[in-house]
């Protein structure tokens, strides 16, 4: 990616982990070249208006399905990265449930190679087990040697507690983090939605909240046993969040994320039988939604992560029980957080930029602070602009967007990734 561009972000309010101040930012050669007021912009610079807007470290999504290799009809590294940039992201972590899965250094380097041509930074999560089958450990050291810092069998949880213990011990020795998709396969088996009043009424088999919670409980126990950090992916129930809250209070090295759909949609939407509302973990009831919101504001949750899961129309047009789970998220996550989570902007940015950057091991390039010499990964956000979600306008190759027609507040004006203005005035530049 070219880093030769000179960009001036003028008239905005800078917000990073150190606070809020009025400042212009000059970007040159891929880094922040100047921060201050009354700056003399170099001639020929691309001048971007940031007045009335917030200039912040770019967002970091630690849970993105880019579908390459193997499912390019749904998404590619290139198309997913463009969707990410439109959502204000300057880095994404690509999940390993591709075809073939990212369970070897060869596949990890292939995705990392594709990422080098993408418009935002693409990090890769490796699988914990070979083929994500939960039977044998994948070669974590080989992948870690390539810079892979996060490992998960996402899409499935590691069912075997002994294997998970060994994986945690190994990960801890390597200095990498394991991220668990918490789903007990036996309890969840056959469940197409959340088990509750709606699943009974609709006659759709459900998976109970406890299918998530028993694995959260087990992994907290394994974290205590091994001392290895554990990151919990897309938590969705009050019980899971209470477990994480207690584990943190007890000093265990656990971190956790929630996806926007788990604080903005409920299982009542499944009454439409529209597979766009099918996702895993499933949409829950209002009490769980309230618990996710509370956990975002009290520090139990460290990150908002999209679980951007593109699926082609022919897959999502199948009957509800046959359609794959998953929904798009990159282009709507920030606005959903600003509209629905009732959090101050600073907290939203902490949950979507510097905290996930730390979990993913991306602090050297992502998450700020916005200081001279730091890599220029920035987003410019209009916190009060209203817009209506139109799935047809997405940069994603897929259209499984559950927010069609919804009015949201908060829009991405510009995104600067590795010093290049990749989104200007809400439009992608490539
Ligand atoms: O809904 C989901 N879709 N949940 C997952 O864990 C995997 C994802 C996918 O890859 O489609």
Give descriptors for this structure.
single chain; 430 residues; alpha/beta; Urease, subunit C, domain 1; TIM Barrel; 2 domains; 8-stranded parallel sheet; 7-stranded mixed sheet; 21 strands; globular; binds (4S)-2,6-dioxohexahydropyrimidine-4-carboxylic acid
How would you characterize this protein structure?
By secondary structure, the protein is an alpha/beta fold. It has two domains: 7-55 and 372-428, Urease, subunit C, domain 1; 57-359, Metal-dependent hydrolases (TIM Barrel). It contains 13 helices and 21 strands. Strand 2 (13-16) and strand 3 form a beta hairpin. Helix 4 crosses helix 7 and helix 7 runs parallel beside helix 8 (238-249). Bound molecules: (4S)-2,6-dioxohexahydropyrimidine-4-carboxylic acid. (4S)-2,6-dioxohexahydropyrimidine-4-carboxylic acid binds next to loops.
Would you spell out the secondary-structure blueprint of this structure?
Blueprint: E1 6-10, E2 13-16, E3 19-22, E4 24-28, E5 31-36, E6 46-49, E7 54-57, E8 59-64, H1 77-86, E9 89-94, H2 105-116, E10 121-126, H3 140-144, E11 150-151, H4 161-174, E12 177-180, H5 185-188, E13 193-194, H6 197-202, E14 206-207, H7 209-226, E15 230-232, H8 238-249, E16 254-258, H9 261-264, H10 286-297, E17 303-304, H11 313-316, H12 333-340, H13 345-359, E18 378-388, E19 407-417, E20 420-424, E21 427-428
This protein binds (4S)-2,6-dioxohexahydropyrimidine-4-carboxylic acid.
């Amino acid at each position: 990616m070219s880093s030769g561009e000179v960009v001036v972000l003028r008239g905005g309010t800078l917000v990073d982990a150190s606070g809020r101040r009025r400042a212009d930012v000059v970007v040159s050669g891929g880094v922040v070249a100047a921060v201050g007021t009354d700056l003399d912009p170099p001639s020929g610079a691309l001048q971007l208006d940031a007045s009335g807007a917030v200039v912040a470290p770019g967002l970091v999504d630690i849970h993105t399905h880019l579908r390459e290799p193997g499912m390019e009809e749904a998404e590619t590294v290139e198309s997913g990265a463009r969707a990410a940039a439109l959502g204000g992201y300057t880095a994404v972590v690509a999940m390993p449930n591709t075809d073939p899965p990212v369970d070897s250094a060869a596949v990890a380097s292939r995705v990392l190679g594709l990422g080098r041509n993408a418009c935002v930074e693409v990090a890769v999560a490796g699988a914990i087990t070979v083929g994500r089958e939960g039977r044998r450990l994948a070669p974590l050291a080989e992948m870690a040697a390539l810079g892979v810092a996060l490992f998960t069998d996402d899409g499935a949880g590691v069912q075997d507690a002994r294997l998970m213990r060994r994986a945690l011990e190994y990960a801890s020795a390597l200095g990498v983090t394991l991220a668990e998709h918490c789903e007990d396969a036996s309890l969840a088996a056959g469940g197409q939605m959340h088990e509750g009043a709606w699943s009974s009424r609709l006659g759709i088999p459900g998976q109970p909240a406890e299918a998530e919670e028993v694995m959260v409980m087990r992994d907290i126990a394994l974290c205590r046993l091994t001392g290895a950090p554990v990151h919990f992916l897309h938590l969705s129930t009050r019980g899971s969040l209470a477990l994480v809250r207690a584990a943190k209070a007890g000093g265990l090295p656990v971190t956790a994320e929630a996806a926007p759909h788990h604080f903005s949609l409920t299982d009542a939407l499944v009454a439409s039988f529209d597979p766009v509302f099918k996702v895993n973990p499933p949409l829950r009831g209002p009490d769980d939604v309230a618990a996710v919101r509370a956990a975002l504001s009290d520090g139990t949750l460290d990150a908002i992560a999209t679980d951007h899961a593109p699926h082609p129309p022919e897959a999502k047009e199948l009957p509800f029980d046959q359609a794959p789970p998953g929904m798009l998220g990159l282009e709507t996550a920030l606005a959903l957080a600003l509209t629905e989570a009732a959090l101050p902007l600073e907290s939203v940015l902490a949950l979507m930029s510097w905290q996930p950057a730390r979990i993913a091991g991306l602090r050297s390039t992502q998450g700020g602070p916005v200081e001279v010499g730091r890599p220029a990964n920035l987003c410019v956000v209009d916190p009060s602009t209203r817009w209506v979600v139109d799935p047809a306008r997405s940069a994603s190759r897929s259209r499984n967007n559950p927010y069609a027609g919804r009015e949201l507040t908060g829009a991405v004006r510009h995104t600067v990734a590795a010093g290049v203005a990749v989104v200007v005035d809400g439009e992608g530049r490539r």
